Amino acid sequence: MEILKYLNKTITVKIDRPIGTKYKNYDNIYPINYGYVPNTISGDGEELDCFILGVYEPIETFEGKCIAIIHRLNDDDDKLVIVPEGKNYTNEEIRALTYFQEQYFISELIRPEGYLEFSKNIPELSVSNLEKSLEFYKTAGFKIEYERPENKFVFISLGEIQFMLQEISDNDKWDVAPLSYPFGNGINFQLEVNNLDYIYNSFKEAGYKIAFDIEENWYRQDNKLLGNKEFLIQDPDGYLLRFSEDLGEKN
Q: pTM for the whole thing?
């Protein structure tokens, strides 16, 4: 992707929608400064757009560091996230600050190589064959963040979903009882994604067996219903994964 060259670079931005601007005839008020990189062309044929974080007064130009790219999956109009030198924002903070506009699109956050934001809850799965497990998880789009080959250990991620995988050894202190297939019996991991159909088709094309096909479900929360479409699949050791895509809510 051509746009990746901007990550971690200092960028000069022309601000055409300062904080507080009302956009055209809509009620959308910009809560942050918004602009573009002059003399560039984005996928939509216009200049490459930028969200400016960390500056809370209207400005005309800004020079800062690109800490992330918002890559839209259903629109050809990616955005740079620019901040003052020395500042940083988590994925959650970026999502919150750009929600006013990005709520209408499906996107993923691309961060500089080596950037890793640890989740507050990271399951570690004991696996019988690390190579086979990695083949399975890579089919879904997981990538290796780091590994310790001497321990047959890897840390993998898919967007904000994170797992640790470690091949079982004879002296593994984490095994408090003998393991038998299916591992993790009695638990399933719900993994929220933006591209459920793509992941489903990747597994099908690779010959993996789907435990339960894609279906739409609505779950009651107080007086409203939360919807998702989801499918179930077991990894090579039988861990049950529930890939899910949000469908919003209704009464």
A: 0.66
